Fold:
Amino acid sequence: MTINRSPSLTEQVKSHLKARIVTGEFPEGRIPPETELAADLGVSRTTIRDALSRLENEGAIIRKQGAGTFVNEPGLQIRSRLEDIWSYEDVLQDHGYTPSVRVLGVTRQSADPETRHVLQIAGDMLVMEKLFLEDRRPVVLTYNTIAAPDGGVDAALPIYEILRHNDRHLAYYLSEIVPVNLDADQAAKLEVAAGTPVVSFQEVGFDQENEPVVKSASYFRDDLLRFRMIRRKEA
Amino acid sequence: MTINRSPSLTEQVKSHLKARIVTGEFPEGRIPPETELAADLGVSRTTIRDALSRLENEGAIIRKQGAGTFVNEPGLQIRSRLEDIWSYEDVLQDHGYTPSVRVLGVTRQSADPETRHVLQIAGDMLVMEKLFLEDRRPVVLTYNTIAAPDGGVDAALPIYEILRHNDRHLAYYLSEIVPVNLDADQAAKLEVAAGTPVVSFQEVGFDQENEPVVKSASYFRDDLLRFRMIRRKEA
DNA sequence: CAGTGGTCTAGACCACTTT
DNA sequence: AAGTGGTCTAGACCACTGA
Structure:
């Protein structure tokens, strides 16, 4: 293992260990003691612990005080961690799919009162409707609403790229998980029966100045993309 | 601020800062530099940073390298963080509700093949059906399936307490988020129309030995309990 | 009792933002 | 240039597990 900066040492250690975990290199799932890992990899124990903490958060390992650190087989099943979904194309890729995007519509019009309020805009809004597909099967339907920019936009780009080109760096989403029955139009686009229950994300994206920059709604086909997570008692 | 061990210094610093944040003590949402906090509270900068990291994960603050640390107003709206839900009574309490539990049924019977496989049991299983209410309104409907214990159980207790009394320490859940339309029976129990779409958790709980100990299904009334989360680009 | 992970310290240096 | 958060080190001590 050669060490460089960027990505950080911790991140390098993490991916190094993750790779060794998934190849089943550790006998009986037992991971070496932190001090040993630190010596072997030539980094401090703190760096090792940071990397192990991230792996533990992902569910890849379990740590038991006084006993040791172990591979967590059930946790390795998790493909999409809810909290760090950023691009649906990446999500589909992590599921072993070969994703593609289809822009269903881009409409520019005067912002409705709710959007005006949420996004703090006065003028026009731009609504982009997109479909993410695996092979030819639709998996995710999204609507992104932003303040209409001066120039044109390439709606096929990920929303954070579009915003970046307009000098708004997307920092995080505040999301609500909402159950809905698809209406006829949405169901047709996702190629399922009308009234199919789906999980949706209703969210607002904020930039680095902590100002709202995008209002977003996403609908998922449960049979093709199901979200998993690890739940624990405390932080 | 007096310092004791247990809870950890980091945890004490975190709640101390959280309290100051919610009371709006920091002018313009600007939180003092880490070195200053460390000096004021008499702890190392590492401890301060650990506490700030947790607050950042919860969405309460935002850190900007080179600029400072700031209160994150939108993030303070989050009542129930998805990843660390442990007891539904606590969740309801965090929402300002006064929770109660009603045991709808406890049945002991031979385990079906799927449960045998998931929970790795040979004999009987015990299924507990519970309803969590706010005032008199039902909010959460849960089914917990465990290997039938020798003695009796008080089904009204939280599931982790029941398991603890049988020497199985619940360590974490592996959860799937699944959209469903409630059937007539479930809808009646939650006092909503049949066919109402809801978010459900389908999950398996593991103990500290990483063995499956409980199979669980939960259904939530979206109008009374909606889950929120912060989504970011990476860890 | 030896060995493990958990907590905490003090300090160095870097990357970035702001003035 | 000054000040901030980001990364990393080396080491101390504690709490817990298991032989």
Residues 5, 33-35, 49, 52, 63-69 of chain A lie near DNA strand C (CB under 10 Å from a C1'). Helices of chain A lie at 9-22, 34-41, 45-58, 88-94, 113-119, 159-165, 184-190.
